[in-house]
Amino acid sequence: MALGTIASRVTGFGRTAVLTFALGTGILGDAYNTANVIPFIVYDLLLGGILQSIVVPILVRRRKADRDGGVGYEQRLFTLVTLALLVITLAAIAVAGPLLAIYVHDPVKHELTTIFARYLLAQIFFIGISGLFSAMLNTRGRFAAPMWSPVLNNLVILAVGVAFLAVTGGDATAESVTPGEIVLLGVGTVGGMMAQVLALLVAVHRAGFRWRPRFDFRSMNLAEIGKLATWSVVYLFVFQAGYAVTANLANRAGSDAVAEGLGYGAGFTPYNNAYQLFQLPYAIIAVSVITALLPRMSEHASDGRNDLLRGDFGQGLRLSSALIVPASLLMAALAPSITVLLFSYFNTSTADAAYIGEVLAVFALGLVPFTVFQLLLRVFYAMHDTRTPALVAFANVAVNAGVGVLAYTLLPAGHAVTGLAAGFGLQYVVGSVIAWLVMSRRTGGLGGRAITSTIARLYLASVPGLIFAFAMSLAFTTLFGTGRLQALLSLAVGGGIGMLLFVIFARALRVTEVTSLLDTVRAKLPGRRGGTR
Questions:
Q1: Confidence of residue 132 (pLDDT cuts 50, 70, 90)
Q2: Cβ count within 10 A of residue 85
């Protein structure tokens, strides 16, 4: 799973980088990127939250309890979801203009964003089918295809980005882009999601699923789904309301930066690109752990085994933290080097890329609380509790939106988006504390002392590497200035030796999770059997 996630994220960054080369970080890039997140938002609000939070636990229970092993339930569910997705997709395309007004206030940017959205909103249908296929595969213990299928999506869109670069010569702007070039981006992006669905279709077919449309939905006990889904939808509406505030403020900051004549993009695209990079350690490490644990946690919760549920949570969090803690600190120290090396080509200047790094550095500091919160959510969902996460979300969003408004109001346009990233991290600090206290009381404790001890030692072990990486970044900047050479040297020397220092100090501090991971890696090396020579 981790290898599939790595391949997905690497190709995903290739896709993001090429699109950034092609579109830049100004109005054109903001318009495309804003339009491209709307299908995911609409899907999450109207259907995705239901699938993500309750479908896996329900399918696990149905496979155990139903005489047919849950086959009939899956047939009805797939039929119902397909019909719902068709209606939602067509409705979203019809109201694209008013929908985009929530996220974009500038008239010129709104018009261009709406044009992109009329193509990109077609992704809603394929996003939904992909999510349902993935849930069905996960309940069968098949995790590889959902992790690998996004690679096809990324490769298709990467090819579209290269074609756009070839057509435009790498200097496209909001004023110069043609209708044909917009069609290339719009249709090509949807084609990527279609390729992902086709890959998953093959996987579910091999897993034994054969769709036979069934419309006897009453036997699905929709009241149970509705009861659980109500709070899932509340949770998502609250979070997406907060995201709408963030996206609107980021787009406003970008327009303000253009009006003030800043020499770099400072709007939604830097926020979006930094967020995608920030997700990399979480996606590679924690998502793999969470995906594997959720069916098991659902079974333990269904059997009333809170002791095993606590064990799953503690194990998952400690293993995830063993790599996420050092990754977050090294990412914060080396963020400008990462983004300059990745993005400073063609339509994106070094200054554009460096600002993405400034935003990424702040995002990175919130990686650990973000991971803790996501794992806590899965514990609630395993217990069929969607109400508590929804209520906690109000506190999260209040912090995020409040900090965001303050950042936009008080900071210069060129740094407002950095403040938005700070609000993102702080909301998960608050949310994790609240969710932890609630779940700990419900399960008789979450092993907080052991988890806190592990995470504290991980942070302590990361400090020498953090200092070294930051020092190398400053030294190479002094010697070579800000550019790709400085970025490459900073990452190679600062990142490589910084991670080595972490391993040395983690072993000295006897962080067993790091030691076990190292033993696992050694066991996989050529010439070793069972971890020994």
A1: very high
A2: 21
Token couple for 235? 């949770």
In sequence order, the β-bridge partners of residue 529 are 532
What CA–CA distance (Å, rounded) separates 243 from 233? 15
3-state helix, strand, coil in the chain (%, to 5): 85, 0, 15
Structure tokens that stand for 408 in this block: 């936009």
Task: Locate 97 and state its tokens.
Answer: 């203009």
In angstroms and rounded to an integer, the radius of gyration of the C-alpha atoms of the chain is 23
Amino acid identity, residue 478?
T
Identify whether the C-beta of residue 268 lies closer than 8 Å to the C-beta of residue 247.
yes
3-class SS letters over 237-250: HHHHHHHHHHHHHH
Contact residues for 19 (Cβ-Cβ < 8 A; gap 6+): 29, 32, 157, 161
The structure tokens 């067993």 sit at: 512
73-116 tens-digit pLDDT: 899 999 999 999 999 999 999 999 999 999 999 999 999 999 99
Domain boundaries, the chain: 1-220, 227-445
Is residue 271 within 8 Å of residue 246, measured between CB atoms? yes
Q: By CB neighbour count within 10 A (0-12 exposed, 13-18 middle, 19+ buried), where does 262 fall? A: middle
- Please report the pLDDT score of residue 52 as a whole number: 65
Which token pair is 266?
């400072």
Per-residue DSSP letters for 389-434? Answer: HHHHHHHHHHHHHHHHHHHHHHS-GGGHHHHHHHHHHHHHHHHHHH
The residue type at 282: Y
Residue 7, sorted as left (phi over 0), alpha (psi -120 to 50) or beta, turns out to be alpha
